[in-house]
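Figure 2 data, in text form.
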Amino acid sequence: MSEQEQLKTFTDDLLQEVIAISDSEDNGEFRINEFTRIASEYLVESGEIDDVTVCYHKSRGMQINGYNVSQDEDCLDLFVTIFNQQSPPASVTKTQAETAFRQVEGVLRKALTGHYKSMEESTEEYDMFQRIYELREELTRARVYLLTDGVVNAENITAESAGDISIAFHVWDIRRICRFASSGKKFETIEIDFEQEFGTTIQCLSMVDPDSDYQGYLAVIPGDVLAGVYDKYGPRLLERNVRSFLQVRGNVNKGIRKTIMEEPHRFFAYNNGISATADEIEFADNENGKVSIRKVWNLQIVNGGQTTASLYHTAKKDKASLKGIYVQAKLSVIPPEQIDGIVPLISRYANSQNKVSDADFYANDPFHIRIEELSRTVWAPAVDGSNKQTKWFYERARGQYLDAKGREGTPARKRQFEAMCPNVQKFTKTDLAKYENTWMQLPYQVSLGAQKNFNHFSIWLKERGRTEVDNEYFEHLIAKAILFKCAEKLIGDLNYGGYRANIVTYTLAWLSHHTSQRIDLDAIWKKQNISPALAEAIRAVSVPVHRIITNPPNARNITEWCKHKGCWEDVCSEEVNLSAAFRQELLEIGRSAPKKADKGIDGPDERDLEVIAVVSKVPAQTWFNLSKWAKETNNLQSWQRSIAFSIGRALSNGYQISRKQANQGKKILEEVKALGFNL
């Protein structure tokens, strides 16, 4: 297949995906918003950006389709979309591209002057403009992305700065998206030419062992060069296996900043430097016999992300000079066939001081692989009296769905594939994290955005350890997906005017909490739909949820308010009277109940059940006595006494105690026995 044929096929499939999702009953978003979301997912997958909030605003001289603020709040990503809905893709002229970029520049300049004050409150556009204004003193750079289903032929469109904020333009047209999707690479190649970009080469010592499966080098990098590399590539330098948010949390390291500002000549002595990997290195020709690096491909910093970011931020925000600052670097060149095996281990060992640094193996985790396997084999029940069964397609890596459909060959076989795996029944790893974290009553994490929420889910998954992924788990997961999609439709029809994503996750988290997770997921799986009583409960709960999240304390930014646990505490404490019909549908409570409430990935496996059985044999009154004894004798921690009492209360009411309670209860029993308490 020629490149043009491949591009047309890719464009056809992407447009059909946009139409299927935006025009389906499960999703009422406008097509341009859906295209923006899908296109930006490729940018996230490529490592170009961290996340995106789709937010459409258009007025005279201004257009914007999405935005994102970096973790350290110094970089603003802005997105503008040109959506033609044509195949073969139409050409986008230089004038059209320039106009789109200027419209986003107009948005930025207006936002920095407080334009939100003249806008209607309680809208997502208002929040975006307010957020940019709040960060006007923190922002040092803005990256503007043009997303389009057309082909952009223009090059070298220059941007102007907005005060102290530097602006860079980036084009992701359908051709670039298609090339990335078909390349088989997880990330776009980073190519750094030190000689051309920074006027220098990087001196190094070779540690190459001919019998080794990698090449090692020790290098010394000037601070301004390292900061310059970060300025250009940002978090993409930290994307492979250990996400940037695990290394560059929050503010600049105060110790590093102090050294840069006050004792730059001692930076090399005080700082541990960085550990990095690369796919390939090109060396300069040195007549004096010294080894120096001219070019490097796919540089990835696996330890020292905070050092790198701190150099950049201190130079940008404090206007500090980096002259005389040098950073030692351990650089490992890994063969392509060894990357997936060696790089995660380098990441883990180089970051051994951080207990969560090896929690992030993402889509290659056995958990996700097992979900993918089940999604290819488990058939959903036929509904509406038909015999037609379908599958829910788990897209573990972006583009798997289109790739699987493309392999069907003929148009007829492609139609059969779409009938078997409808596009509206495709879900991604970020969708999965959204469903599970909502069910686990973490709506404030879901509100952080798709990628950040997935990061938190990945950490929890690793800390949780053993997770039994069987047919029942998969069916319950799909039931949560159906619940979420139905809630999106129901809440969208109520026309709240914005914040649908936040209202949905908070509403379902409230229902999960106030029903003790007793919504009958088996019934949802069998019907592939929710009941009228559950639909009415969603509508009823969404009313106070909308009121609470759109009235934050102290006139805070609504989007930021939704990201805080305090918002969930306010929502969770709200009382809502639900119908008797809905309550009758809930699973029965007690040991003799035919079904148990679904706990998601927090549910017990076989070893957990053994611990639960041991702890449950201790009578409820003994747990009450233990808690009282510990308080009177000042033994145990207060939270341990609280757990002991909670276990007693659960057992006295006939409830099964949770996995967490059982494992902590076992430790408590061992501790009090050693202290002489008579069980």
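Caption note: Residues 3-183 form one domain.
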